[in-house]
């Protein structure tokens, strides 16, 4: 089927760079490129060894397209597991397109998104979760998500799953063997050893499932809501954190009606900041919509920064303390940092007074001046303390992929059934069904069980050329 085709695509980003790489993969890759290539040493490409580089020109009839460097991968020793030629040409988009069109005329087909990686999977070069990690790796824009994708690509996660699957498969065969001898009362599968395995699988599955909470947040950035009345300095703080002038700063109260989102990487962890309107009582329709939005954003956020202006806080502290308590009661589980901004407007004693007043509330407190960048670094550290990076530091496997998460949940469900079966001395034939089902979900993750629709969905998220 599709593997019969020889595919071509630009592997480097579209646009002009110093060089561009055009990838050709498939049974006829070398056959198609060789007649177009004039080596400066007069070599015939088809007679060269695999994993070699060749300098020359791409020529059709008398037309010289470009001087190029060819990387040759013969047999199955390539990324895709099939003959591959990578053409490094000069980076102009004109040259890139001319060469790709030439190759299309000579019998290549344009690659679909992710098709190179899909071939790699279909040719057994990597399993499905590794292939998925390739796209995560390309998308990762911070240290933490890069680390997770890299680990997944190197097969840490799938090896763990594949090993458990293998062990479970052994028991499945033994139990099914018992079915063949159902007349006699034999037990080939040692129930004690089997229970030990099931417990171990349950433990691993639960750990992987739990890791998704961390993994998902790291992959997408940790959402932080910056909440506060108009003019307390939310946008200024966001700018100070981002070190750029991106959010809108103004002196008119109520400017930040629409929420602004921005991303920032602190110590390798991505944060997604959401600048929201405050929650003061209001009759203004637009603003009350804003308040509703604020609550929504707090719900979605992992951490809430609740900003106050120092002068106003001094004057209306009892009102504000009620407000803080209201948020605390509404979202008791949500990590909350109370931030008193504009401390440059108060004396040291006045600041100490505010600190004393807030002590009884038992909330994390940071006093800052966003405008003068005082206390901003401490605030960053406070944010980092809210993130559970333990799993990252310990290099444990972390799940970031919703598809894996779903399969793991289903596998766990089946494993629990097997456990009940063991407890209740369920007959071997019924237990075998649950084990088979668990095996199916394990296989879904690594790709031992697969179908065209699943593959289509996964690789459609890739870019062309990968
Ligand atoms: P937002 O409505 O909460 O987003 O508030 P802005 O960030 O737009 O700031 C409102 C005003 O407060 C602007 O004029 C800022 O320059 C000012 N401001 C922000 N931070 C500080 C600070 O630390 N000290 C002082 N004195 N003014 C500040
Ligand atoms: Zn603002």
From TrEMBL:
Binding residue positions for GTP: 231-236, 250-256, 275-278
Pfam families with a match to the protein in the record: MMR_HSR1 (PF01926), MnmE_helical (PF12631), TrmE_N (PF10396)
Stored InterPro entries: G_TrmE (IPR031168), GTP-bd (IPR006073), GTP-bd_TrmE_N (IPR018948), GTPase_MnmE (IPR004520), MnmE_dom2 (IPR027368), MnmE_helical (IPR025867), P-loop_NTPase (IPR027417), Small_GTP-bd (IPR005225)
Molecular function as annotated in GO: GTP binding; GTPase activity; identical protein binding; metal ion binding
BP GO annotations: tRNA methylation; tRNA wobble uridine modification
EC numbers: 3.6.-.-
Residues annotated as binding (6S)-5-formyl-5,6,7,8-tetrahydrofolate: 23, 86, 125, 466
PROSITE patterns documented for this protein: G_TRME
Binding site for Mg(2+): 235, 256
Class of the enzyme per the UniProt entry, highest EC level: hydrolase
Binding site for K(+): 231, 250, 252, 255
Gene Ontology, cellular component aspect: cytosol
Cofactor(s) the protein needs: K(+)
Presence of keyword Hydrolase: yes
Subcellular location: Cytoplasm
Keyword set, alphabetical order: Cytoplasm, GTP-binding, Hydrolase, Magnesium, Metal-binding, Nucleotide-binding, Potassium, tRNA processing
Cofactor binding note from Swiss-Prot or TrEMBL: Binds 1 potassium ion per subunit.
Main subcellular location: cytoplasm
Domain TrmE-type G: 221-388
Family listed: Belongs to the TRAFAC class TrmE-Era-EngA-EngB-Septin-like GTPase superfamily. TrmE GTPase family.
Function per UniProt: Exhibits a very high intrinsic GTPase hydrolysis rate. Involved in the addition of a carboxymethylaminomethyl (cmnm) group at the wobble position (U34) of certain tRNAs, forming tRNA-cmnm(5)s(2)U34.
Quaternary structure annotation from Swiss-Prot or TrEMBL: Homodimer. Heterotetramer of two MnmE and two MnmG subunits.
Official protein name in the record: tRNA modification GTPase MnmE
Lineage: Bacteria, Pseudomonadati, Bacteroidota, Flavobacteriia, Flavobacteriales
